[in-house]
Amino acid sequence: MITNSVVALDIDGILLDFEGHWTDCARRVLDWPDLKKLNESYQLHDRYGLPKADAHHVWDTFHHEVQWANVPLYDHARDLVYALEDMGCQVWAVTSIRAEFHQARVDSLCGLLPVGRVICVDPHHAPIEKVAALHRIGAVAFLDDHPDNANAAASVVGLSALLDRRYTGLEVPTSDVVVIDDPMDYPVLVETMLRRTRLVD
After folding, report:
1. DSSP notation for 21-34
2. Do residues 1 and 88 lie in contact, with contact meaning Cβ atoms separated by under 8 Å?
3. Predicted local confidence at residue 199, as pLDDT
4. Which domain holds residue 59?
């Protein structure tokens, strides 16, 4: 059996459809109903062809309205967490967002994780702070959709996985990072790692 192994997940792009929610907000705020994705750039203003001033306006509104509290769950979110918990894992979330929005993050997860297992780190220093958080909670595995974070996490967890969202303009995942394109591959990877390290019979 697993000895209550701690595994961690990023939130946006992993459990929650942040992009869809943000663009809905942008269409409303900018009165731009035909706003469409133009490319796979990581930066949202580039991805949707928005002038930086317009993007800042959207972000300001997003923060002011605390839209973080109602970012919708992906269809796979519950299955992902439950699959990990069914193995006996303790699931945590480590997300890049200002601490003032911690409760909003918890609310957006709709009870999927308890408040004490949602950690917010400074988005301006996400890789370093995520590593510190993962070390603090004793995580053995981590899943993120940003290569910088996954690369950094590989130094402190046995399994650092990257959900490849095909973003451009970011660093390349290192050989220590396992790249997947389906979030439900993560529980399989976790189980394999735990068996290999004899934490699972």
Report:
1. HHHHHHHHHHT-TT
2. yes
3. 53
4. 18-70
Q: Provide the token pair at 174.
A: 């290192």
Residues 62, 83, single domain; the answer is no
Q: What pTM value is reported for the model?
A: 0.94
Which 3 state secondary structure label does DSSP give 59? helix
Q: Per the structure block, which two tokens stand in for 169? A: 């303009």
Angle at 167 between CA 163 and CA 168, to 5 degrees: 140
Tokens found for residue 178: 């396992």
pLDDT class of 81 with cuts at 50, 70, 90: very high
Instruction: Cite the beta strand spans of the chain per DSSP E.
Output: 6-9, 90-96, 118-121, 139-144, 159-163, 177-180
| pLDDT tens sequence across 167-179 | 999 999 999 999 9
Say if 188 falls within a structural domain. Answer: yes
Residue 191 · residue 86 · CB < 8 Å: no
- Beta-carbon contacts of residue 89 (< 8 Å; ≥ 6 apart): 2, 4, 5, 6, 7, 190
